[in-house]
Design brief:
homodimer, 311 residues, alpha/beta, Nucleotidyltransferase, domain 5, 2 domains, 5-stranded mixed beta sheet, 9 helices, 36% helix, globular
């Protein structure tokens, strides 16, 4: 029986799974920490793949979702957050040499988009924008049923469009990017700054906050927390209006922890989207949905990639 | 001998040309006003096509570039600036019925991008962004050697990404779009406003200005005019950084009248691009060029479309 292996490599954990034929339920799953004394992350990745290798029948292809910027054409990880040694790592070649099967690699947010399009909330759409809003903001775009990669595979970094020139500093070192305003990190930071400036809140002053705490306080009626989610949602809507004018998709899929904040984030986002879109044509039949695959989106995207590269 | 007809329909003039085989020099060209008493623009368009119809041999296809939003899948003009009657006009069907050959239509800025990619400054690039900066700002994008159209054909409206929330009012009725800051109209308006507020300039107060006059004054050393072009170029660079992160193209082609302003526009644009791009990877081997086809870009794009639709 033909099988496929999908792997999602994160900064803290590696997940590997084996799938038989077109079955979407894995025959075997392995989940291990990315880091362990005495073993490199690449060795651990190889061990995870080996542990799900099927006993019967050939593996058609391995699909790998990796964090950070990556050249999907060459299968080279340019750098990876929380995996310091992975700089210009020829991941595809190393795995092909080790396992002697076809290997395809992709950026994790890109592959989450591919996963949602192939198996999740974006099924049936030919043009789709996917955004994952958690500590950072990652993106993936489907154009004409194909993943948008660009000349060097660095496309769809949708968290890094400027929505506020001279705005807050982004994790990438530049100002006013969407990620610097609407990510979970940015939401928590804004609340802390406002509290430090004397605004009332049920949230504690002078302590590190998470966006999850902010969302919980907002649900309890905390006005500052509500304003923080509204601000993040509003700028997300402004950015999405620009992305609608740019891509004219039929679906927008939002994943990541912040998307769990519900209407406190989504209502201001939808309002800003309506206010900033050029003509209602862009909103006609537009589906706006939360991601369906949760934290399996990257793994399922790696599976889709394995299917496609074996064809 | 096989031939193709290309047409560029503008608000003031219609151009039609006939091309033989793969020849890029037209065998015959017609240029007439779009509006004339007693005749509708559609009748005039049909007459222009008829006037370049070859005497010998079949026409393979007609490609038409039309202004304004257009559904290229159905060949329907949704609306057209300066052609009031063209609302939901089934242009493709009307022309196919009249001439009994295959007709393909496209938005003029999209087809200018296609023209530059196929025959002009973008040849050989698989991923390309085209912007035309004149009274407004239009755009076109090539992704994987294909024109980006989107679900309804409304993609690549790159003049309508927000670069300054609550910024100046755009022609589309929304605030802070790139077109409201970096277009020729916006450049001239900003200079007028600054003069009205008492800033010194060699340009006259209280009179309508054109961006061409501003560019000329800037070349003569007028500081306000220089600042106006620098402001427009800077925001163009900010928007382009976001578009690089979005599309990761290998070429950016800039056309339109404002692109004639030279380094007074392009130097600030390049500086802002460098300042706002996440990593130098996006700039590596990136070609930034002015358009090569001038005001023939739309016509040449219509020819490329005719070639493609006949294949």
């Amino acid at each position: 029986m033909r099988s496929y292996i999908a792997v999602d490599v994160g900064g803290t954990q590696i997940r590997a799974a084996c799938y038989l034929e077109d079955n979407l339920e894995p025959a075997c799953v392995q989940r291990i920490a990315t880091h362990s004394p005495g073993e490199s992350p690449l060795e651990r990745l190889m061990a995870a793949i080996q542990s799900v290798w099927p006993e019967n029948g050939p593996v058609q292809a391995i699909g790998v979702a990796a964090p950070g910027p990556l050249d999907p054409y060459q299968g080279v990880v340019l750098s990876a957050p929380n995996i310091p040694g992975w700089i210009n790592l020829p991941l595809q070649r190393r795995l092909e040499e080790r396992f002697n099967v076809k290997v395809a690699t992709g950026n994790d947010a890109n592959l989450a988009a591919l996963g949602e399009w192939r198996f999740g909330a974006g099924q049936g759409h030919h043009h789709l924008i996917y955004l994952t809003v958690s500590t950072g903001i990652g993106g993936g775009v489907i154009v004409d049923d194909r993943l948008l990669l660009g000349a060097r595979g660095l496309a769809a970094e949708l968290g890094h469009v400027t929505v506020m020139p001279d705005g807050p500093l982004c994790g990438c070192g530049h100002r006013g990017h969407l990620e610097a305003i609407s990510s979970g990190t940015a939401i928590a930071r804004w609340v802390q700054q406002e509290i430090a400036q004397g605004r009332n809140s049920s949230l504690p002053a002078g302590r590190a906050l998470t966006s999850k705490q902010v969302a919980e306080a907002a649900r309890q009626g905390d006005e500052l927390a509500i304003a923080a989610l509204a601000r993040a949602g509003t700028f997300m809507g402004i950015a999405l209006a620009g992305l609608l004018h740019t891509f004219n998709p039929s679906a927008i899929i939002i994943g990541g922890g912040v998307s769990q904040s519900g209407s406190l984030f989504f209502d201001p986002m939808r309002a800003a989207l309506r206010d900033n879109v050029m003509t209602p044509d862009y909103l006609k039949d537009l589906v706006i949905a939360t991601a369906a695959l949760g934290d399996s989106a990257g793994l399922m995207g790696a599976l889709a990639l394995a299917h496609m590269s074996a064809d």
